[in-house]
Amino acid sequence: MIKRSLQQVAKMVSAKNDITSFAKTMISGVSIDSRKIGAGNLFVPFKGEHADGHKYVEDAIRKGAAAALWQSDVPNPPAHLPILIVEDCLEALQELARKYRRELAVKVVGITGSNGKTTTKDMTAGILSTQYKVQKTEGNYNNHIGLPLTVLGLDEDTEIAVLEMGMSGRGEIEFLTKLACPDAVVITNIGESHLLDLGSREGIAEAKLEILQGLQDGGIAVLHGDEPLLMERIQQYKGNIQVQTFGRTDENDFYPTEIIQMEQGNRFTINAANEWFELPVLGTHNILNALASMLIARYFSVPFEKINEGLKGIKLTNMRMELVEGSHGEKIINDAYNASPTSMLAAIELVSNLQGYEQKVLVLGDMLELGPEEEQYHSQIGERLSSEKIDFLFTFGNLGRHIAKGASRKLGEDRVFAFTEKRELLQELEQYVNEKTLVLVKASRGMRLEEIVTALQGK
Q1: How far apart are CA 400 and CA 18, in angstroms?
Q2: What is the pLDDT of residue 323?
Q3: Closest residue by Cα to residue 280 from 324, 314, 307, 319
Q4: 3-class SS at 234?
Q5: Does residue 94 fall inside a structural domain?
Q6: Among 53, 100, 276, 382, which is 20 to 30 Å from 26 by CA?
Q7: Is the pTM of this model over 0.90?
Q8: CATH number at residue 330
């Protein structure tokens, strides 16, 4: 994490006040939460509509913070304390991260995409860790606040940082990539998330491609080569970069040549290596995420032997294709962290093809931020279900009713149940699960369907 004197920090954030008496004070790390202050932290207070972090500056310093920022339009700065007065605390945090990044010798991998970016981040960091000291974005620290905090948390001797870059609108990825200055970038895919804000998949593609604007000269862009929206636009890009692709077809640099799907993950081969790779993650779509990570690893000269070692030890962030057991012995795939039509169809494909279960049950909730055609997207999910591969469907939410409506024509109304109350859904669902049942639970994060998983586990 960042370790600098207050005099150095003052210069980095263009502080307005005289800090001569505190100039030699050392800060170690940065915190924006006064309840989680670490010894020596620089506390950054934010002024919001409903709360003002400046009220907690003195408390943060009492708890061990070495210093704090203070926004110039907030009255009565405590002159007796080690504070740095700045024009805007958020902008100062971002500028501190930007300057710290430029002082580090670290290589940076930036990852974005409509689906799979967190999984790809975890895979990439896991593989690279077999050969380098690696740090990665933790949790959902992938926005205009989280990414600067992640950068400021990098150790000086970290060799590679794997940074996830999220967005909800235009310009956000551009801001993040110009702050992080990645040496390599990945765009996992272009889905339907953020259609509400960006209007079309073309708009989403353009927003994701903003990540190239911070890519170092001569760096590498790893793209989903089966996505025409990416390939058409990358051919028009004028910058000095390398481009490599992954996908299902043999037109890509890396593509799978054989896949064996198992209960706990996948075994697969690729065109570029003469060996089997083991991936303890469910879903053939996650093999594509692994291919993106493998291309990044090869760029950093990691041999295939170590790539395989890294893949075998992958630990994904919770609620992403997480296989757990329920209290009735049923197996549950907890994929409740997020959902879009693309990722939901991929999860349904996984369940449809898994062998060894007498009964397969889907619990699907609303997919959010899909724009004016959201009802149609939900209905199409139901219409794509196979009556031979799926036994029962339970939906949750107002939009989920459209999944149920579409599925009724395929499965029959007696096999489809729609709910807007989780308690009622759970009471009905528990009558249909036993030790020979596989249950998929998936919805957008805002639906909190992990509560169904927890309840099925009897917790």
Answers
A1: 58
A2: 87
A3: 314
A4: helix
A5: no
A6: 53
A7: no
A8: 3.90.190.20
